[in-house]
Design goal:
The protein has 353 residues and is of the alpha/beta class. The protein has two domains: 12-207, no CATH class; 240-344, Endonuclease, Chain A. It contains twelve helices and nine strands. The protein has helices at 20-31, 53-69, 77-81, 88-97, 99-104, 109-120, 132-143, 162-178, 240-249, 297-312, 322-327, 329-344, and strands at residues 12-17, 39-46, 148-155, 182-188, 205-207, 260-266, 272-279, 284-289, 316-321. The protein has a five-stranded parallel sheet with strand order 2-3-4-1-5. A four-stranded mixed sheet has the order 6-7-8-9, with helices on both faces. Strand 7 (272-279) and strand 8 (284-289) form a beta hairpin. Helix 2 (53-69) packs parallel to helix 7 (132-143) and helix 9 crosses helix 12. It is globular. The two termini are 39 Å apart.
């Protein structure tokens, strides 16, 4: 998935895929393995609605991603964690004069004041008092100070009329001019060759996901569709299983200090994989597999090859299903504890985990 190679900001790149959701999940995973990493946000666009709604969809999608990432904005999460209403203004002063602000170029304080208030109320920071341009620009720089990738997921998969396709192309061209980001539109393969998309499809990529199979139905415990890529060093904001496990691990005196979240691991074969949890000193990896992103033959084979290379590199790999973590997090903790004790050479409990 080399779609971002030699791909400057200010342009749109199309990927025509036989299974767009699978291609998007691969793009999210691939971005995390790059040396500098990318902050990837997925924006939903519904072409069954009036064409003027496309911009509203982009604003709302980016606002949802920003809420998921809150308070990890401007690469300065500590700035907002302890910020109270009485200290918000001074917090913004520090942000505006600090290193993060110098990279952002322009911080819109009135928007940020409203956005912080809305995120604290667990509401996506969408405010009609500001233009879509201001909202998209400010959301983009809050989410990522650099290397932001906006992945466009389009629904429904049925081919829209010419007006909808042309509106999509023009909207994404406008987005690429207004927001400093890489724009990647992942579109159904059946849309390839449509003249209405010529303005954005001149350097398109083709993704043949012939073996991919979408899940028929999601379990109540399964992961929601991803809106953002993982944050290195933190539980995945889109994975309830990782969030639940992290909240339990942090309270555990033995396990809490050991594990890091969503960190890259380089194998002896020079492959680079991002893993859900890793204890580097003990060479223990824990992966939490949701059915949504581990259900195709490609994903199954890829996971096994990852495990093979990690094991060659001395790592023990424990795979837990997302559903099992959500259903019984204490059992998941027991399994992790048993492997930690094994790596430490400590006696294991007589009872099975």
């Amino acid at each position: 998935m080399d779609v971002l190679e030699e791909f400057p900001t200010g342009t749109v790149r199309c990927v025509f895929s036989s299974a767009p959701d699978v291609s998007i999940s691969k793009l999210l995973a691939w971005g995390t393995t790059r040396p500098d990493g990318e902050r990837i946000a997925v924006c939903e666009v519904n072409l069954s609605r009036p064409v003027y709604s496309i911009i509203d969809d982009l604003v709302f999608s980016l606002a949802k991603a920003a809420l998921v990432l809150w308070p990890d904005w401007y690469d300065s999460s500590e700035l907002f964690l302890r910020c109270e209403e009485s200290t918000l203004q001074s917090t913004l002063d520090r942000l505006a004069t600090g290193l993060a602000a110098s990279r952002q170029r322009s911080l819109h304080r009135p928007w940020l004041l409203r956005a912080v208030t809305m995120c604290r109320a667990n509401s996506p920071p969408v405010n009609s008092d500001f233009s879509p341009t201001v909202q998209l620009q400010q959301l983009a720089i809050a989410i990522a100070s650099q290397n932001l990738v906006l992945v466009i997921r389009v629904s429904p998969p049925d081919l829209p009329d010419s007006t909808g396709l042309l509106a999509l192309a023009r909207s994404l061209e406008w987005l690429s001019r207004e927001v400093s980001a890489h724009i990647v539109a992942v579109l159904p393969a059946t849309w390839r060759g449509r003249a209405e998309l010529d303005g954005i499809s001149w350097a398109a990529r083709i993704a043949d996901e012939a073996e991919a199979k979408e899940p028929e139905a999601d379990s109540a415990f399964d992961e929601p569709p991803a809106t953002v890529s993982p944050i290195r060093g933190r539980p995945h904001p889109n994975s309830p299983g990782e969030q639940l496990l992290a909240s339990r691990l942090i309270c555990d005196a033995l396990l809490g200090p050991l594990f890091q979240y969503n960190m890259p691991v380089t194998t002896v074969r020079a492959s680079r994989y991002q893993v859900d949890l890793v204890w580097f000193d003990g060479k223990l990896v824990v992966e939490i597999d949701g059915y949504r992103y581990h259900s195709s033959r490609f994903d199954f084979a890829n996971d096994r090859h990852r495990d093979y290379e990690l094991q060659l590199s001395g790592y023990v790999v424990l795979r837990l299903t997302h559903e099992s973590v959500m259903a019984d997090v204490e059992l998941a903790i027991d399994k992790i504890r048993d492997l930690v004790k094994l790596r430490l050479g400590q006696p294991l409990p007589s009872r099975p985990s």
